[in-house]
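Before a computer can learn anything about folding, someone has to put a protein's shape into writing. The outcome of that step, for a single protein, is printed below:
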Amino acid sequence: DAMKRSGITATSTTLTGLQLNITYYVWVAAEILGAGVLGNYSVRVSGIVYSVPGAPTNLMISPPSVSCDQLMVTWTAPCNTGGLPVTYKVYRNETLITSMISS
């Protein structure tokens, strides 16, 4: 199993070595120390590890000055999308003006 445990305390642990975009199921049971008597299992819960997308690069506006009240904005997609499709949010003067889903 690629999952490792680190930083275990009385009621928590951190699972490391996980892969992106895979559902992991976890449950817990208590055992009497030294007696080998295992209690009932907890309810099973699931979680998925996502990564934060990198910033788009090469942001450009064409033409360099206003023409016909329009500006074309282009950019390069980030190398790291977090493993999932991303939504680009375009802001003008601190205001969200449009959102687009990457293809």
Summary: The longest strand covers residues 57-67. The chain has a mean pLDDT of 81. The CA atoms of residues 65 and 71 lie 8 Å apart. DSSP finds no helices and ten strands in the chain.
